[in-house]
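task queued by scheduler; priority normal; single chain, no ligands, no partner chains; default sampling; output format set to structure tokens
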Amino acid sequence: MNIPSEQDSKTDPSGEQILERCAKTYLAVSEYVGECVVNSHSTSSSNEALPKSGSRTAQAHFDFKRGTCFNIQGHLTNDTPFSIESSPTNTILKNQVRGQEHSEECENLIRAVAAMTGVAATAPTTILALLTPARWGFPFRSGLVPCLKGHETIAGHDCFVVVQSSDTPARVRTYWIDSQSFLLRQMREERGENSNDEVEARRERHKTFNRERGLPDPTNYKIIESDTVHVFSIERVVLGVT
């Protein structure tokens, strides 16, 4: 992969410039093949039980050709497989429901990925949001100034380390963005007890999805703390939208 950098100066760009350049780079991608692995550890509470801690792992592999296909294959946090095959004419979601193979045609790619986002710990979500103009699930948070904290090496690639955090430390997101290609190599989100509005909104979306399929409502819970790391392995990237 050889993507030229527009930064000729020895001075690093600002955190805001890095995120802007990253977003523009993904929208210029015509082909993308890669994988996202998510590892998450959280402590949560519900009305029915004492606080409990747990870890989740999920994976998604992407094969994207702009204007032609966006295929995703992976494993959910319960280690069951899922796949999404999307073309300009239809989108097919395949997974397991109550232990049985299930296939359905979805309204669009975003609806299919949204259905898998919670049970796949957002593994299929970030790359979709970066590569498509819909911006559902877009990783860079609006309204918060991104700060460049330095450089770190991720899988042999020199990366800018950019941090976005709220005024109260309820939610901190760190991005490792390749300093040469401006592609996202890793992302970490740390959340505290004051960050539960998004959790409730996601639960309502999952409730609607489950009820349409005769499944039970998702558990009503609140996050006490969580730490989630996305690692992005990039196999192939082609720039130049035709």
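post-processing summary
- The radius of gyration is 18 Å.
- Residues 1-9 have pLDDT under 50 and may be disordered.
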